[in-house]
Amino acid sequence: MTWKRPPSPVTKKFKVQRSAAKVMATVFWDAKANLTQQWLQRYGWEILPHPAHSPDLAPSDFHLFGPLRRHLGGMAFETEDDLISGLRNWFDNLDVDSFRVGINSLLSRWQKCIDLHEDYVEK
């Protein structure tokens, strides 16, 4: 019920459209993975703890989700299976060098973090 004065215009009602369903993707990086740690030690990589409040240092935030969002932008999936198929297709067609480039780009980000004494790091 709407209260109004007699000369007031009639309130227009807008048709409500259902928004597109959203899906959350979660990626877990295991710092305790023996195979990964052995590989890093074999090639002389130093393992650094992830500083608090620096999400730009998380590989999935800048190297995985960004390109994935650009790839899937504007696409609509009818079913969850269609979405899963689209994701698998993207992962299957990733160039191996894309991971190397992403990990190497962490070097400058980490250096900023070290220079700021582990304070917040932005792009």
UniProtKB/TrEMBL annotation:
Q: Name the domain of life.
A: Eukaryota
Tell me the protein's name.
Histone-lysine N-methyltransferase SETMAR
Q: Which InterPro entries match?
A: RNaseH_sf (IPR036397), Transposase-MT_Hybrid (IPR052709)
Q: Which organism is it from?
A: Plakobranchus ocellatus
Q: Which GO terms describe its molecular function?
A: nucleic acid binding
